[in-house]
Structures are given as C-alpha cells and as structure tokens.
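Example 3.2
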Amino acid sequence: METEIGTIYKKDIHAHLQSLDDYNIVYILLKYTNVVYVGETKRFYCRMIEHKSDKDYDRVIVLWADSDGNSSSCMHKLEKQLIKFINPTYNIKHNN
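Structure, written as tokens:
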C-alpha cells in the first residue's frame, strides 16, 4: 500500500509519526527552503526523535511511503540518488 503524505511541519510531526511506522519511507528535512537532509527508514518515529536532537530543520517532506517490505531496496536507491543530486548539508554517507 502506497501513501502520499506531503509536507509535515516540525511542530505537527508527532501527530503523524506513529501512523507511519512500519512503512518504508523516503523523506527530506528542510530548513526554510533549503534541503538539509535526505533519509530512508522503516522506523520513522525513531528517526524523527533522533533528528530532533541533531539536525536543524523546520519541515519534513515525505516523498514516498510504502508498506510493501520488498520495496526497501528501491527506497535506498531513491535516497542515494537524491543525496547525490541535492547534496544536503547533513548527509555525509552518499555525498561523495
């Protein structure tokens, strides 16, 4: 099952977090209009809690949420391509 979520503002994120657990998700963190991080996870709730303490952002855009467990390799490829194309501030792993 796929779902389109769109933009979630940081102040409202807790209302959406648990409904997205167990989905394969590709997401973007923004500060104003700047992309600061691109990520991929199946533990959206935990990742947003982690990011709250170590990344400066004000919005999250969920690009893709899919409950199909077989799509994780596609999600990882999408994340990697976005990081190479956008070169976000906080992404180190795939920036080079």
